[in-house]
C-alpha cells in the first residue's frame, strides 16, 4: 500500500470519508447516501462521487460500517471473539480493485449473541490511543467491550440511545412535553434513580406521571429519562464485567455523550478517559493501512 489512502465510515444513514497522505488528513467529505439511503444509486457510484478527485488506480480505499453488512455493498464476514486487535486488518474483503471492507466482530454463545460492525475499527484505534480492559462506546446501540492488551475478548450491546428516542417520540412518555432543554439536575436525578433501581421498566410510566403531576418540568423530561436509562445501563454492565476501580475505562463516542457516561461512572467510583469517535476511527484505519503497507 502507498502512503496515500482513503478511509470511509459508511453507516446506514450517512457516509464520511477522509483522504490521507503520509499520515496527514488532506481533506474530508460527508454524504447523506448511507447504505439504506442510496436512492437507486449503486454503492460504487456513491463511492465514485464522494471520492471524486481523490482516487487513482493506486489509491486504496478502506471502508468500515454497515457497507459490509448483508444490507450493504457486500457481506463481509464477522470475526468471532476472542480475536486479536490486528485480525480485522488481516482479513479484509475486496469489493472492487483496491477497495476493501473491514470485517465486523461477533460473539455467539448461549449467554450472549452479539455483533459489531464499524466499532471494531474504533476499537483498534482506541487500543492504540487509550488502552483499557473495558471500553464503552455510547450511541444508539452502546457497546461494552472487554479486552486485554492483545485481544478483544467479549462485548455486549445495550440499546439505551434507541430506547430513549423511541420512548420520547413514539410512546406516552413523550406526549405533550414540548421543546426540551438541557438540565444537569434533571439528568442527575434520573441517574440516581437508575443506579438504585434494577427494575426501571416499572419507572418508565412514572416519568410521564411526574411531569403530568408537576414534579418534573416538562422541558426536562428528556434529560431525566437519559439519566434514568444511562444509570441503569452503567450499573448493570459494571456488575457484569467487574472492572477494577484502579484502572481507567475508555469511552469512545462524541464528547458530549461521553460526558454523560463519565458522570455516571464517576458517581459509582470509576474514572474514564474519553476519545472522540472519529479520532479513534481514523487511528484504527491508519493502523490497518500501515500494516498493509508492510
Give a written overview of the molecule.
Helix 4 (160-170) runs antiparallel to helix 7 (221-241), helix 5 (184-196) packs parallel to helix 7 and helix 7 crosses helix 8. The model has no long low-confidence stretch (mean pLDDT 95). A six-stranded mixed beta sheet has the order 3-2-1-4-8-7, with helices on one face. By secondary structure, it is α/β, with parallel strands linked by helices. It is built from nine helices and 15 strands. The chain has helices at 43-50, 87-90, 119-129, 160-170, 184-196, 204-212, 221-241, 255-267, 277-293; strands spanning 4-10, 15-21, 24-31, 61-64, 78-80, 83-84, 93-96, 99-101, 104-109, 112-116, 134-137, 142-147, 151-158, 249-253, 272-276. The chain is globular and about 65 Å long.
Spans with pLDDT under 50 lasting ≥5 residues? none
| SSE class | alpha/beta
Count of DSSP strands: 15
How would a textbook summarize the main sheet?
6 strands, mixed
Distance between the termini: 8 Å
Mean pLDDT across the residues is 95
Strand content: 25-35%
Estimate the helix proportion, in percent: 25-40%
From the alpha carbons, calculate the radius of gyration and give it in angstroms: 20 Å
Side by side, the strands of the main sheet go 3-2-1-4-8-7
Order of helices and strands: EEEHEEEHEEEEHEEEHHHHEHEH
> What's the total helix number?
9
Looking at the structure, what is the overall shape?
globular
Describe this structure in a few short sentences.
The protein has helices spanning 43-50, 87-90, 119-129, 160-170, 184-196, 204-212, 221-241, 255-267, 277-293; strands at residues 4-10, 15-21, 24-31, 61-64, 78-80, 83-84, 93-96, 99-101, 104-109, 112-116, 134-137, 142-147, 151-158, 249-253, 272-276. By secondary structure, the chain is of the alpha/beta class. The mean pLDDT is 95.
